[in-house]
Request: fold
Amino acid sequence: MSWRDFRSAARQLCLLPVGAVEPHGPHLPLSSDTLLSEYFAARLAERLPAFVIPAIEYGVATPPFRLGGNFPGVISISGTALTHVVTDIFQSLAGNEVRDIVVVNSAIDNLSFLCEAAREARRHDPRLRIMIVHWWDVVGEGFRDSLAAETGVARSEDHHAAMVESSLVMHVAPDAVRPELVHSGGEDLQAGDTVRRTGYHMFPLPAESATRSGIVYRADRASTEIGERVAAQVTRNMTQAIRLEFGLPTPASESEPALQEEG
Reply:
């Protein structure tokens, strides 16, 4: 975009992808979260009167118990830094007459700081309307349940770098994935009960909660085909949610029912 292009687009919806740089097992790239956020932002821009601004590629560090241990490749910023950066971006956009912003975030530990940035920016300019959305929150419960039944991978076994996320990255960035390594977790992958999982965080990470590969959940059933289906479901439901919240009409050429569970 040139500045003239930006001036023309400023009254449209602004899409800000936010990701992270961190391990996703041995089979996915460190940039998986950013790749997914950029992908969905691009898909939204094809379906909505919207434009995409450059992504924030660094996020808040995910706790080691979600990553399966302390592995190389975590390049993070503090929550305070993320809050300040995103607040400044929101306020800069507002100064350029942008009023409606959607943050497409794919790293869960960024959430609290993105929300704080939205609150702070709106304190300075109440005209701002900001949505923060994650792909996993709009897949649909029924869709996820059906996928679990179809594949035999329980939802409790399908979180960070597991079947659904791995499938999405296979679809979005196939050249960046090493599918032959989804089995490299050995007993970590096939006998998940040998990796102690907790509903809380411990620092340092207990030895029995660590893995050798960084595969905490099951990625062995991941496939490009599943990724394509999930991507279509997320894009449809995310688009519908944005249209609902920002009062955007659904084009007559599109047949989109209300937010879907089954897809």
About this structure: DSSP finds nine helices and four strands in the chain.
